[in-house]
Design brief:
alpha/beta, TIM Barrel, Immunoglobulin-like, 13 helices
Length: about 475
Amino acid sequence: MRPPAAPGLGPALLPPLLLPLLLPPLLLPPPPAAARRAPRYDPTWRSLDARPLPAWFDRAKFGIFVHWGVFSVPSFGSEWFWWYWQKEKIPTYVQFMKNNYPPNFKYEDFGPLFTAKFFNASHWADIFQASGAKYIVLTSKHHEGFTLWGSKYSWNWNAVDEGPKRDLVKELEVAIRNRTDLRFGLYYSLFEWFHPLFLEDKSRSFQQQQFPVSKMLPELYELVNKYQPEILWSDGDADAPDYYWNSTGFLAWLYNKSPVRDTVVTNDRWGYGTICKHGGYYTCSDRYDPGHLLPHKWENCMTIDKFSWGYRRDAGIDDYLTIKELVKQLVETVSCGGNLLMNIGPTHDGTISVIFEERLRQMGTWLKVNGEAIYETHPWRSQSDDITPNVWYTSKRKQKLVYAIFLEWPTSRSLFLSQPIATLGVTQIKLLGHGQPLNWTSLKPNGLLIQLPHLTFHQMPSKWGWALALTNVI
């Protein structure tokens, strides 16, 4: 059910440092003896931003985003269905409801229809493992406010009390940790479109904090303590400042005392003005792809469906990115120092549609051959080739390796690379998945002309891009 209206019980606007003191003690249990140490990080952005990003995240390079919720029931247009239908009253959404549902049908009536009847967490985990991803991020709660776990603070608008009557977060967490080597992460929307406490706070220009104190902060503490996510993907600040959300106070607890304090990774969406400025790594915008090296770790969160994060029953085949386009996104992103977070949208009954499963398994097939040029790599001095298009570079410094990933196989079988400088008798070049050293010619003042092997289509080590390992080049 939709949360009922609630009286104004929250405190007036308080300094961020005082907000954690208002939360019920059960949300902040005493840490074990080993965790009782002096705080390393203060609740200020200057202190929090100084925390080193846990090294596993940069090594991982590739993750899966999963947008799943009540919006998967109408599965029309976008996961913003409720907003576009009820608030903006976009004609196509209004007409969709008139054509398919009774006149008095409300959004909360979709809740019982979100059944997750065919949701098999083990099957999902096996698909994610096959994709070659190293982490997943599940939407534990989107802007509609429906939580995929039995939140004590959700007013029964959750997957345990409504719809599936199951703790979907727990089922996936257990499957991921028992069946895969992926890290488990959770997305959480700070705000909710139509929650009465949030709307009241907003009407007062966020000069009171009923919603964060009564709903959002308790849920975040509950999520971390119960499921111990190693990625906390915050979203949806609704133009409210970070002190309204008490973001710095929460993050100080997360980094100092939480059960995942040493391994957890956070993004940059913690209040108005924080995106691309504060947090563990930057997302900057949806589908962010700068095309050049950034000085701070970043992530390109993007969708296989070009137009929606949630499942769309009205999507056509041309609405989905091809595997060739997805490989290109991965290669470009990693060469520029980013991670790729590739999104799928399961159906309301818990099925990963065939088109999404195919793309994930295709990416895994490509990474089995070329993953050496992706995982645990670093940006090289040049991210792409100046002369030959669709060539991107990565490197492994300790091994003195540079990888040249090319996305078009030249018909002449001669590939020119303008950036590497090679040395005769020292430099060696191999095609990943082929094994035999390749012949090459050094060109002056710099650059290489590489002779690729004569291979039939079926002999190709991969289909949608290839990687060369260059040893001892500068």
